[in-house]
Write a structure and sequence with these properties.
41% helix; eight-stranded parallel β-sheet; binds pyridoxal-5'-phosphate; globular; 17% strand; 229 residues
Length: 229
């Protein structure tokens, strides 16, 4: 895809978010756009940045680090992939958000390895909302326990939940997964964790459903950068 298309694709995604907000009575400023640039070259990130895009998501650590080093430092990097405990240091040093935290051990390491003087790493707990045996993420029952544990760690700030619902041809089923994630976020937040506000959910194919159910971050790759390999 030509880099010059990124500008119009980004505008189209922002329009989709705005329309979904209007349709459901939300303020578009509540929904943040995370541009997922995995497998795409740094030049495309710079192009999107020049169009005002501030947050970028990556999934493969080594590829991400090479890209981060060649892009101006004003952008904010989010690690959206699953996190192995031997990779926590590089994530704590190179990223400001981790969207798929799913164990106390990983969270503790991320916090301990966050460089002194930097703001705490912002963490979202990945929830296996569709109860798929193959997917990563904690069960809904475990999420409040993990949230409380992370809240006691230095160097890391637990901010909310993330999920990737199972693909399902039935829109109502997909929407219900988003709605369940929101209810879980609400119950954790309302149990004396007022900063637990974020909901990272919705990708290219389902951003409208996710916005309708309260997403505060939508993670969009294909609609901005084109198909991946
Ligand atoms: C790749 C990826 C996305 C973006 O998906 P698209 O369907 O291309 O928008 C979002 N979230 C995660 C965790 C991803 O790995």
């Amino acid at each position: 895809m030509a880099e010059s298309e990124i500008s119009s694709r980004l505008a189209a995604v922002r329009d989709r978010i705005r329309a979904a907000c209007l349709a459901t009575g939300r303020d578009p400023r509540e929904v943040n756009l995370l541009a997922v640039s995995k497998t795409k070259p740094a030049a495309m990130v710079v192009e999107a940045m020049d169009c005002g895009q501030h947050d970028f998501g990556e999934n493969y650590l080594q590829e991400a680090i090479d890209k981060i080093e060649s892009v101006p430092t004003s952008v904010c990097w989010h690690f959206v992939g699953a996190i192995q405990s031997n990779k926590t240091r590089q994530i704590a040093v190179n990223f400001d958000w981790a969207h798929a935290v799913s164990s106390e051990k990983v969270a503790r390491r991320l916090g301990a390895q966050r460089p002194a003087g930097r703001a705490p790493l912002k963490a979202l707990i990945q929830v296996n909302i569709s109860a798929e045996t193959s997917k990563s993420g904690v069960s809904p029952d475990q999420a409040p326990i993990l949230a409380r544990a992370i809240a006691g760690f230095e160097g890391i700030e637990v901010c909310g939940l993330m999920a990737i619902p199972a693909p399902d041809p039935n829109e109502a089923v997909r929407r219900r997964a988003f709605s369940q994630l929101r209810a879980l976020r609400d119950s954790i937040r309302d149990d004396n964790m007022p900063e637990f506000t974020e909901l990272s959910m919705g990708m290219t194919d389902d951003l409208e459903l996710a916005v309708a159910e309260g997403a505060t971050w939508v993670r969009i790759g294909t609609a901005i950068f084109g198909n991946r390999g």
